[in-house]
């Protein structure tokens, strides 16, 4: 099954434009930015840090057929965006398992990934490693994300479902 050409990023224009990884992905033709909720692909996997279901390889089929959505918003606004705005819409909400940021703004912080890192992690976990590396290659620090997180990413990508990802996550966090 062919993966959709580009991930979709709901871009809410809440962060410093000079540090925005989603904008750079869009400029390079590696992501499609949208600013309206009705432009999001119906049935896609939405990376939601507040979801109770972890992303797992079992979500790969949906990502390949329906696509993947990242939300680019301020961490300060994230809870409101996900609870008030996106809940109840026709998406599969999935949280990434715990990973360490390698971007210059949040380097070394657990779970505070850039949009680029979140998308790359999702692709890696569902078996699209080349796609993950391609996205990360747009920054000189990008591939460091894989180096820092290789062991957990490999472990997560071997899991069968969300419950197993959560169990494996406890070994790393």
Give the helix/strand layout.
Blueprint lengths: L7 E4 L9 H7 L4 E3 L10 E3 L12 H7 L1 E5 L5 H9 L5 E3 L20 H11 L3 H8 L5 H16 L4 H8 L4
Parallel strand pairs: 1-2, 1-4, 3-4, 3-5
Helix pairs in contact: 4-5, 4-6, 6-7
Walk me through the structure.
The chain is of the alpha/beta class. The protein has one domain (about 10-170). It has helices spanning about 20-25, 60-65, 80-85, 115-125, 130-135, 140-155, 160-170; strands at about 10, 30-35, 45, 70, 90-95. β3, α2 (about 60-65) and β4 (about 70) form a beta-alpha-beta unit. It is globular and about 35 Å long. The model has no long low-confidence stretch (mean pLDDT about 90).
Q: Short description, anyone?
A:
Helix content is 38%, strand content 10%. By secondary structure, the chain is an alpha/beta fold. Helix 1 links the parallel strand 1 and strand 2.
Assembly state here?
single chain
Q: Measured on Cα atoms, how large is the radius of gyration? A: 15 Å
Number of helices: 7
Please describe the biggest sheet, giving its number of strands, its sense, and whether it closes into a barrel. 5 strands, parallel
Please give the number of β-strands.
5
Lateral arrangement of strands in the main beta sheet: 2-1-4-3-5
The ordered H/E elements are EHEEHEHEHHHH
Q: Give the number of domains.
A: 1
* Ends apart, CA distance between termini: 33 Å
> What is the typical, i.e. mean, pLDDT?
89
Structural class: alpha/beta
Name the beta content range: 5-15%
Low-confidence stretches: none
Shape, please? globular
Helix content estimate? 25-40%
